[in-house]
Specification:
The chain has one helix at about 5-10; strands at about 15-20, 25-30, 35, 40-45. It is α+β, with helices and mostly antiparallel strands and about 55 residues long. It has one domain (about 5-45). The protein has a two-stranded antiparallel sheet. The chain has a two-stranded antiparallel sheet with strand order 3-4. Strand 3 (about 35) and strand 4 form a beta hairpin. It is elongated, with a radius of gyration of 12 Å. It binds flavin mononucleotide (FMN). Flavin mononucleotide (FMN) binds next to strand 2.
């Protein structure tokens, strides 16, 4: 559930998007092109995500 406060934070700020390999190695990147769509979905614009997009 993405509440109103979370939506505002997502819209106004650079966010950090974290993914992980299957064996638990984390990868965290800054993302600016982020918009909440509704109460359960977030739009992320992939311009230059490399490791983030890879399957481990
Ligand atoms: C302030 C800031 C905002 C960024 N916003 C985005 C974004 O919205 N979408 C995107 O694809 N890359 C964005 N980037 C670039 C990614 O963070 C960068 O390409 C990242 O190194 C990709 O790493 P990865 O190879 O681990 O996935 C942004 C970078 C900075 C510094």
């Amino acid at each position: 559930m993405i509440d109103a406060e979370m939506k505002e934070v997502l819209s106004r700020n650079i966010c950090y998007f974290a993914t992980s390999t299957k064996d638990g190695k984390p990868n965290v990147i800054p993302v600016g092109l982020v918009e909440p769509i509704d109460d359960s979905r977030i739009l992320l614009v992939d311009v230059k995500m490399n490791k983030t997009r890879k399957k481990s």
